[in-house]
UniProtKB/TrEMBL annotation:
Belongs to the binding-protein-dependent transport system permease family. It is a multi-pass membrane protein. It comes from Streptomyces sp. gb1(2016). It is found in: Cell membrane. This is Sugar ABC transporter permease. InterPro entries: ABC_transporter_permease, MetI-like, MetI-like_sf.
Length: 309
């Protein structure tokens, strides 16, 4: 009887085998790439082209070169709208991130009431932005809304929507109330991936819940926070429904952010070429901020510890 001795694989063969395990073929990405190209790349390319044209939506676009872009950089209204968009984004991030992070970590635990309370908390995520904006507009109506009764008790002016600061804060609050559950889900998933052994070792060393949160939970959720922040920033920069229904850019132009300015320019004054320039500038700003965050956080160099398994 002959015996066959197995031949040991070289390190290169083992690395190649491990590298190929779990990696789907490129063909699997084709449907996603086609969908993204048709519904994202092509419309974006059309918008970029229209930003160099004069177009009223009826006649054929007339190429005008850099006229729209020259007007854009000299337009004080665009500058104010850009500043308000960045301010709204900052307020939304500062408001939503700590609350979503704490709720996500709490929801990842094993409390008895966790599932029930989480289900209630996630209800706003299921509602449409239009319905939520109409609801809060009714609640904050200075003449007939609940704010007329409870506002003085809380030290809030019932006409909170009539001030520039109040209107902007209300828009940020309403957006956060709806989308904070989404970011809570992100943090909940990230918190559940943290190895339990880290907390067990910290408890043995005498670390309490607060120290465990700042020395284990937060560092482990660094990349999760980057993902949530990018989605939050892009979402805040593209607020539209809430502003349209609740403030219509007012009072005055104090909540006229870039998406609403784009809508007003394109569909109220029918200056669609200039509106396309505003839209393109908004895409550039949102993409730039996202890339800067990825670069500074090191998110782009993250590698999965399960890769190849």
């Amino acid at each position: 009887m002959s015996h066959h001795t197995p031949v040991a694989k070289s390190n290169g063969d083992r690395k190649a085998a491990v590298g190929n395990v779990g990696r789907p073929p490129v063909a699997w990405a084709v449907p996603g790439i086609l969908f993204f190209a048709v519904f994202a790349i092509v419309p974006l390319a059309i918008a970029v082209y229209l930003s160099f044209c004069e177009w009223d939506g009826l006649d054929s676009p007339a190429f005008t070169g850099l006229d729209n872009w020259t007007r854009l950089f000299n337009d004080s209204e665009f500058g104010q709208a850009a500043w308000l968009s960045l301010l709204l984004t900052t307020i939304s991030w500062v408001f939503q991130t700590p609350v979503a992070l704490l709720l996500g970590v709490w929801a990842a635990g094993r409390q008895r009431s966790r599932a029930f309370l989480s289900a209630i908390f996630f209800i706003p995520l299921l509602l449409s932005t239009t319905a939520i904006a109409m609801l809060f507009r009714a609640l904050l109506d200075p003449n007939f809304g609940v704010i007329q009764t409870i506002g003085p008790w809380l030290g809030i002016d019932p006409n909170v929507m009539g001030s520039s600061t109040g209107a902007l804060l209300v828009v940020a609050f309403v957006g956060g109330w709806q989308f904070m559950p989404f970011h809570t889900l992100i943090y909940q998933g990230g918190a559940r991936q943290i190895p339990e052994v880290l907390y067990q070792a910290a408890s043995i060393d005498g670390a309490g819940m607060v120290r465990q949160f700042f020395h284990i939970t937060l560092p482990q959720l660094r990349h999760t926070m980057t993902t949530s922040s990018i989605l939050m920033i892009v979402g805040s920069l593209t607020y539209f429904d809430t502003v349209l229904i609740m403030t219509k850019g007012g009072p005055g132009t104090d909540t006229t952010i870039l998406p609403y300015l784009m809508y007003r320019t394109g569909f109220q004054t029918y200056d669609l070429g200039y509106a396309a320039a505003i839209a393109t500038a908004l895409v550039v700003v949102a993409t730039s901020i996202s890339l800067i965050m990825v670069r500074l956080s090191g998110f782009g160099t993250m590698r999965s510890t399960r890769e190849g398994m």
